[in-house]
Amino acid sequence: MENKKTEEATVVKHTGSQYLVSNLPEWDVKTCVLKGKLRLKGGSTTNPIAVGDRVLYEKEGDTRGVITEVLPRKNYIIRKSTNLSRQAHIIAANLDQVFLLVTLSFPETKFEFIDRFLVTCEAYKIPVKIVLNKIDLFGNESSDSLDDFKYIYNESAGYQIIETSGKMGINTNLLREECKGKVSLFSGVSGVGKSSLINALDSNLTLRTGEISDYHRQGKHTTTFYEIHPLFSGGFIIDTPGIKGFGLIEMEREELSHYFPEMLRVLNNCKFAPCTHTHEPDCAVKRGVEQGEITEERYISYLSMLEGEDKYR
Question: What does CATH list as the number for 253-307?
Fold first, then answer.
């Protein structure tokens, strides 16, 4: 019996029962299916294989193959699944960086969503930057909320914020440079202009874009599959469907404060260890909140995560 040739590649798209793979940085896409035994290895996740996974596959002709093995991941982004029959869903794997797209209005991205996403990036040691999109819609009346946002996430928490507008081309050159030579995940809630911004980075891309609902001031899903797109300027972007909620998973309560950079800086000064930063005396985190070094908004998010997921979901 002839031995089938085994190749290594990255999963660039998952559509139903089929996976598109390419050996990045080469772009030579082939269609694969999953070997039967691998389907049973999803364990506590809804997807045994995620976009970005490195896999081994047996070639069947020039354009098709069968995935036989998933190689170890260097990192991944995971959230609690809305499918209650399984525990979690892996959004993407093997990332060099994440860009979290947010908007302050139309639609408003809630602080709690932002913080849960950032905490997950911190937990899996994935560099993350905040992209504040639709900056062209900001008027003088928005300046206070913009200043507050920058204080919370840049000055206090230390995250880089890139102000962009896909519609007006603001800072698209900067973002394009940030993506060169890297695999970058773009994510955010529906309606933040993710697909429009990605299209603005590369004129060869024609991702579907959608309108915002005036009634709910929310976006509608325009991206239906997780997918990697090559950029003509170099690098790869993972586009994801808009996310409504972000439930935490695989988090230990006593480690949660370590994933808030502004808390991590001071928590060794707490009198007690471990410290939940809730009721303990002489707590450096609570003192930081009282002195304005740690914002109340982020501390409230931290407390809600400690309370558990049921309330948030």
Answer: 1.10.40.50
Which tens digit of pLDDT belongs to each residue from 85-106? 557 888 999 999 999 999 998 8
Q: Please give the CATH number for the structural domain made up of 6-72.
A: 2.40.50.140
Q: What is the CA radius of gyration of the chain?
A: 21
Distance CA 43, CA 117 (A): 23
CATH T-level topology, domain 78-239: Rossmann fold (3.40.50)
Phi, psi of 223 (to 5 degrees): -95, 125
Give the C-alpha separation, 7 to 21, whole Å. 10
- Digit-coded pLDDT (tens) for 169-226: 999 999 999 999 999 999 999 889 998 899 999 988 887 665 443 334 444 444 467 8
Phi-psi region of 55 (alpha: psi -120 to 50; beta: other; left: phi over 0): beta
Beta strands in 118-187 (DSSP E): 128-132, 161-163, 183-187
User: What residue spans define the domains of the chain?
Assistant: 6-72, 78-239, 253-307
Q: What is the dihedral of CA 197, 198, 200, 205, to 10 degrees?
A: -150
Q: Is the overall model pTM greater than 0.85, yes or no?
A: yes
